[in-house]
Design a protein that fits this description.
Blueprint (H helix, E strand, L loop, with lengths): L2 H42 L6 H17 L1 H14 L2 H20 L4 H4 L2 H29 L7 H29 L3 H7 L1 H5 L1 H12 L6 H8 L8 H27 L6 H9 L4 H29 L1 H23 L4 H17 L4 H8 L5 H18 L1 H12 L3 H18 L15 H4 L14
Helix pairs in contact: 1-2, 1-4, 1-6, 1-7, 1-10, 2-6, 2-18, 2-19, 3-4, 3-6, 3-18, 4-6, 4-10, 6-7, 6-18, 7-14, 7-17, 12-18, 12-20, 13-14, 14-15, 14-16, 15-16, 15-20, 17-18, 19-20
Membrane topology: Multi-pass membrane protein
Keywords: Cell membrane, Membrane, Transmembrane, Transmembrane helix, Transport
Pfam families: MFS_1
Length: 452
């Protein structure tokens, strides 16, 4: 191997490490809030409005941040196409870490009155803007560094960051439940994982600061003739059907995934089924580990069988997981809770690991960051934003979990149907000199793109 090849391989390893670890830190912050919303904030921040209303409002604050993810995606996508992916990643990391740390220092309603939940909501909005801006830049930095035959694997790096973040946040809360059991957890134990985010933020900064910019962006920066003057305008003028298609695929995954990442299962199993909080948190942690492995496997295997085929298989497995979820959870038996969450996590990974490379291969280079970020953010609103709130409302209205299962199954079937409409684009050229190829051949009724 020549010195140039060794340097290139080193740059690629650094890029995938930085995007994976940095994204894991971001999602640790984001999912930590979602878990604590149902376990803690419903009582300490919203308790005066009554138990049922407090539950719904606490989950609404989880979903509220998703409404601001498109703002983060619009801003980050625009600037990632204009000034580079790496710069955007540094800004989003600082925003998320600062907001999470401040949440850990907030007073409760008992100490500050209505000002406490207002400050909480503001900081959650900052988290939403940061999360909306993080994903697209991280995925493109990884995928655009990747060899053509390993884009799925490299793109799965930032995707692995999500289950890794869930694993870290659930494990941190489970550990604090041991260190500060009972009332101590409600008094101060929940704060420690939030404040620890400050340490993680500096670790993430140190890891990311040495990463090289995406080679595709560097080529575009050297040849501004291919620079889109208004990336977002071009995106919606020419690729709106593609944005909606990608958003529906991601929404189908997110709707189901936010049963755990949005905190609904944690709250339901502890408050309604009477299971021990620590047991539930460890079960979610185990499912996050399964989700992480499944996500990495899916990215790797999609390089061989294609993004489309892996999605179709994934949604079928996810449908089985949805059908089994509540019948097993409702037994309130710990082994069945583990089995239900782990099996569901495998299905989620099979519909998640290929999303990064799929979206990177969807859009032309000059608008790729805007396209990937905005599609992802819209999908998050359609799917993850209010899934816990909808689930809680369905449970409250019907008195059972059957309606929730129908809701989750409908989302999964939509994802499967839409996946069947897209054309396989695995391996198309990503460089800015091939934008004509990148702009065509997205759906089964169109001619296949030429793979140069």
């Amino acid at each position: 191997m020549s010195n140039h090849d060794k340097t290139r391989a080193r740059e690629r390893r650094r890029a995938i490490s930085a995007t994976t670890i940095g994204t894991a830190i971001e999602w640790y912050d984001f999912f930590l809030y979602a878990a604590v919303a149902g376990l803690v904030f419903r009582e300490l921040m919203f308790g005066p409005i009554g138990p049922a209303a407090a539950t719904i409002v606490s989950f609404l604050t989880v979903g509220l941040s998703f409404l601001f993810r498109p703002l983060g995606a619009f801003l980050a996508g625009h600037f990632a196409d204009k000034v580079g992916r790496r710069t955007v990643l540094m800004v989003t990391l600082l925003m998320m870490g600062a907001a999470t740390t401040l949440i850990g220092l907030l007073p409760t309603y008992a100490g500050a009155g209505v000002a406490a939940p207002i400050m909480l909501v503001v900081l959650r909005i900052v988290q939403g803007i940061s999360a909306g801006g993080e994903w697209g830049s991280a995925v493109l930095l990884a995928v655009e560094h990747a060899p053509r035959n390993k884009r799925g694997l490299f793109g799965a790096g930032p995707q692995v960051g999500a289950p890794a973040g869930l694993l870290m946040s659930s494990a941190a809360l489970a550990l604090m439940n041991i260190i500060a059991p009972g009332d101590a957890f409600m008094e101060w134990g929940w704060r420690v994982p939030f404040i620890f985010s400050l340490v993680l933020m500096f670790i993430g900064w140190w890891i990311r600061v040495g990463v090289d910019e995406s080679p595709v962006y560097e080529e575009m920066a050297a040849d501004r003739a291919h620079d889109a003057k208004n990336p977002i305008g071009v995106l919606f003028a020419r690729f709106s059907p593609l944005v909606l298609t990608g958003a529906l695929i991601f929404a189908a995954n997110g709707t189901v995934g936010y049963m755990t990442t949005g905190g609904f299962i944690q709250k339901y199993a502890t408050n309604e089924l009477g299971m021990e909080r620590g047991d539930v948190l460890w079960a979610v942690t185990a499912s996050a580990a399964a989700w992480m492995v499944s996500t990495a496997f899916t990215g790797w295997v999609s390089d061989y069988i294609g993004r489309k085929r892996s999605l179709v298989i994934g949604f079928i497995v996810q449908a089985v997981g949805v059908a089994l979820l509540f019948p097993m959870v409702n037994t309130a038996e710990l082994p069945k809770l583990y089995a239900a969450l782990i099996f569901l996590a495998v299905g989620l990974g099979l519909t998640y690991g290929q999303i990064g490379s799929l979206f990177a291969e969807f859009f032309p280079a000059s608008i790729r960051a805007s396209g990937a970020s905005i599609t992802y953010a819209i999908g998050a609103i359609l799917g993850g934003a209010f899934a816990p709130t909808i689930a809680a409302s369905l449970r409250e209205a019907t008195g059972s979990t059957d309606a929730i299962t129908v809701y989750l199954m409908a989302a999964t079937v939509i994802g499967l149907a839409v996946s069947l409409l897209i054309r396989e684009r695995n391996g198309i050229p990503l460089g800015h000199e091939h934008e004509d190829v990148q702009a065509s051949g997205h759906f089964v009724w169109e001619p296949a793109p030429v793979k140069m």
